[in-house]
Amino acid sequence: MDISQKRINIKIMKTIKTRFVEFTSYFFILLFCYASISKIMDFENFQIQIAQSPLLSAFSNVMSYGVLVIELAICILLIFERSRKIGLYSSFVLMVSFTVYIYMILNYSEFIPCSCGGILEKMDWKTHLIFNIATVIIAAFAVILYSDSKRQEIFKSVSLLLVLSIVSCSAIILMYRQSEFMIKKENNFTRRFLQHPITEEKRSNLQINSYYFAGISKDSVYLGTIPLHFY
């Protein structure tokens, strides 16, 4: 292969890397802008849903504002070339945190809450988890491609991504443990309602709808009606 062909191949590879980083940045800008705007438009409901989270109930007020600020800040970082690398790292950290949060809900939560709405409101939690994992991988690739092609620079980027992943996972786990302690031991008057507190075990057709509660014993419930008839 001659020198001119090598230069062309190198130029093509640089173009592909640049386009991938740009498209990834645009993707996260759209994702976070839409997600934050949808939360702002229904902010009261968003706060209630965070408060009913089985993992972060104690931090609902801080989290509701914090998530919005972080998402909008990342969008601004991704817009400008000088801050784009920081924005990609921030996107990676945020999506890792969301992924760990969903994983803990599916595997360690007392109950699975309803979806928080927004752009992913039609997804169930498992699909949401898969989507988040995919975005984490995309963000990681964009960060690596944004770095220089030298092995040393790539190694630094990968190492930093691993460190940020560990920090993000640890932060979510610590917040979960602290939230559970505050809710159960140092109650801050945040009530958490279970999604399915009553489970139906048996159903019986009473034939008429005029029964009223007449009494209860150890293992029986008594209903009365007029004329006098006990069931």
TrEMBL record:
UniProt keyword annotation of Transmembrane helix present: yes
Predominant cellular place of this UniProt entry's protein: membrane
Cross-referenced Pfam families: MauE
Superkingdom of the organism of origin: Bacteria
First and last residue of the signal peptide: none
InterPro entries: Methylamine_util_MauE
CC terms in the record's Gene Ontology section: membrane
Domain (Methylamine utilisation protein MauE): residue spans on this chain: 19-144
Localisation per UniProt entry: Membrane
A GO biological process held by the record: methylamine metabolic process
UniProt membrane topology term: Multi-pass membrane protein
Transmembrane annotation, as ranges: 20-37, 62-80, 87-109, 129-146, 158-176
Entry keywords, A to Z: Membrane, Transmembrane, Transmembrane helix
Protein name: Methylamine utilisation protein MauE domain-containing protein
Native source organism of the sequence: Chryseobacterium carnipullorum
